[in-house]
Amino acid sequence: MGIKSFQGRRTVVSQKVGEPILASDYMTKKLITFKEDQPIEDVIDTLIANKISGGPVVNDKNELIGIISEGDCMKQISESRYYNLPIDKSNTVSKAMVREVETIDGNMNIFDVANKFLQSKRRRFPIVEQGKLVGQISQKDVLKAAIKLKGNTWK
After folding, report:
1. Which among 3, 69, 126, 147 has most CB atoms closer than 10 A?
2. In terms of residue numbers, what domain contains 44?
3. Residue 110 is part of a domain; what is its CATH number?
4. Which pTM does this prediction carry?
5. Could you tell me if residue 51 is inside a domain?
6. What is the torsional sign of CA 36, 37, 38, 39?
7. Which of 107, 137, 132, 134 is nearest to 120 (CA)?
């Protein structure tokens, strides 16, 4: 008599193709934003108080017009110290911000977002819909999504 399998009949398990995890699923929606006419000193205080490294600059219609970062603020400080001057109150966000901002679509797959981070060497991407700023995704947000995926689908 041969060895009999006690597992019973094997059933074919159909794999569910999950919906892709999108950037909008992990983006930060409550953002600290800045205005063009804000003094650099206020931006520095806000960055330090909120432990962030930068943020989007928007107009009154919540349209993205730029990004300001710690590095942009440091340039302003460096220039004023070079000339041995205090930080000038007329140094505003509009003088320091980067206007050419690369954005992503909220419907972008999180893996594509990760790839875009690797290619661009950026720390954050604003997410714009119909010209309005709706959120921002950071490298940390992508890592959170990866950990969640690992728990659900990765072996």
Report:
1. 126
2. 23-152
3. 3.10.580.10
4. 0.75
5. yes
6. positive
7. 137
